[in-house]
Design brief:
2 domains; 74% helix; single chain
């Protein structure tokens, strides 16, 4: 099983665990929304790898995921590895190195190495430059 498929399974398990607490009013709507968005994000990665189409297109549901599509385009255009793609998705959402390391179950040094490699491949040097790249319309 591919790493992105494992992340999708983890996201589905998290959503599955969140639903009862939401229904019993032990968790807020925002917890459920976050779990659902994480699952959709993970499934989108799997579907894009398989068919080069967005998961959202396959279910014919219009949610503006410009940023997500940009990350996928960057991964493809710049030849990032699967693990670099996972790190890039977290970086694109403003996550810091310790958070990413925890979510991907790797060391902070591994995340720093991937981040350096991503920045080198993209020809950038800062999170601000990454943000500018993600905002470009010519990559879509």
């Amino acid at each position: 099983m591919e790493p992105d498929e494992l992340l999708a399974l983890e996201a589905s398990a998290k959503l599955y665990q969140t639903i009862p607490d939401y229904l019993l009013e032990k968790k807020k709507k925002s917890s459920l929304e976050l779990a659902l968005l994480e699952l959709i994000d993970a499934l989108d990665v799997v579907e894009y790898r398989r068919s080069k189409e967005s998961f959202l297109q396959s279910i014919q549901y219009e949610i503006p995921y410009h940023r997500k599509r940009m990350v996928l385009k960057i991964v493809e255009k710049y030849g990032l590895t699967t693990q670099e793609g996972h790190v890039l998705r977290y970086l694109a959402n403003g996550r810091d190195v310790p958070y990413i390391a925890d979510k991907l179950v790797v060391s902070t040094n591994t995340v720093k190495t991937h981040k350096y490699s991503i920045y080198r491949k993209l020809g950038i040097h800062s999170s601000q430059q990454l943000e500018e790249l993600l905002s470009r319309k010519d990559l879509v």
